Amino acid sequence: MRRPVRLIPSTKTQQVFVRSLSTESSKPIISIKDAVFYRQHPATISQDAQSNSPLFPKLTFELPSSAPIPKHWAVIGPSSAGKTTFFEILRGQHLCFPPTARSFPYLSRPDIGREAIRSRVPSQAIQYVGFAGKYGGGLRGGSTAGAYLSARYESRREDTDFSVLDYLAGNIELNPTDTEMQRVSMGDALLKVIRDLKLESLVDMPVGNLSNGQTRRARIAKALLDKPEVLLLDEPFMPTVGLDPPTVTTLSPLLHNLAEAQAPRIMLSLRPQDPLPDWVTHVVSLGPGLHVEYQGPKEKAPGRTELPGAKVRSSPTQLIYSREGLRLKERVRAPTGEPIIEMHDVVVRYGDRTVLGNWHQIIN
């Protein structure tokens, strides 16, 4: 009986195959070359030319899938400079001219299996989480708010008070089926994002009880569960009412860890007065009229470079600005008088939960 013949690929064939895979995996995730974008087709009849002005004319931008030295990007610009619009373009929104000027080579690689077909769609592979304007509210996805909203730390709970774990697992239906009512399974992916975003102590807490800072971490965790290739975070450090101060200092290291692991790649948008994390290596500076003034290494960016805590390194001719973006003049210490309100050993507690305690503050 004849033995079956085994075909063994030559070393040269194996090298070509490995080189091919390596080339595919090193393709850029986003590639934009000399493009201009419009919200509507420029040939549309009876439209206001000003409302359909070009978006970022002659835009060229590339986000690599991998690099010997990782690049961590931040998009910086004042309000109405188009930071959100820039992110929308990166996700495949708005009309591109010429159409071939924007592509997603890494998402088109052949090694993406049928089970991961969603990873080929830019709007799925490139996730967006906004924290300003209409995006800056609570945990979207639930349609119900409990009676505790007027007192965030109220001890009473209702049937519609979904926990953080319910939110992360998508178990937020008002009329769930028997399957949906079962206890949420703590799978490996869910456990990992809970651990990475420091949510272990919050999983059983109603989502309405979260502070704004905790809500931001929960929203980022929810986006990570979709396993995106890129996560766009729109103004994650923007101060809001109720933002717990430690969040500004603790969120940045968490994002740094994700960015270093490239799981996923992280891009931030910031206002000029926001602190620029020291782990950001490259910036895109947006100017008035929806155009890019600069993109490249942050050390070569014109103007000032901000460090954590919004401290500013300035040259002798460089203006210094406050955290609110106001020019700082000579500092004059205001005279102080007798305190109007003085507190000692104050504890704020709802039921058995202490919200504030062991703090001292004098308000003049």
General description of the model:
The chain is built from seven helices and 14 strands. It is of the alpha/beta class. The N and C termini lie far apart (100 Å).
Nearest-integer average pLDDT: 75
| Overall form | globular
Number of helices: 7
The total beta strand count reads 14
The helicity comes to: 10-25%
Percentage of residues in strands? 15-25%
Characterize the main sheet. 6 strands, mixed
Radius of gyration: 25 Å
- Main sheet strand line-up: 6-7-8-3-9-10
Low-confidence stretches: 13-22, 140-156, 304-328
Briefly characterize the structure.
With about 375 residues, the chain is an alpha/beta fold. It has helices spanning about 10-25, 85-90, 120-125, 165-170, 190-195, 210-225, 245-260, and strands spanning about 30-40, 55-65, 75, 95, 100-105, 125-130, 230-235, 265-270, 280-285, 290-295, 305, 310-315, 340-350, 355-364.
Keywords:
single chain; 14 strands; alpha/beta; 6-stranded mixed sheet; 4-stranded antiparallel sheet; 7 helices
Secondary structure layout plus pairing:
Elements: H1 11-25, E1 28-38, E2 55-64, E3 73-76, H2 83-90, E4 95-97, E5 102-103, H3 122-125, E6 126-130, H4 164-169, H5 188-196, H6 212-224, E7 230-234, H7 245-261, E8 265-270, E9 282-287, E10 291-297, E11 305-307, E12 311-313, E13 341-350, E14 353-363
Parallel strand pairs: 3-8, 3-9, 6-7, 7-8
Antiparallel strand pairs: 1-2, 1-4, 1-5, 9-10, 11-12, 13-14
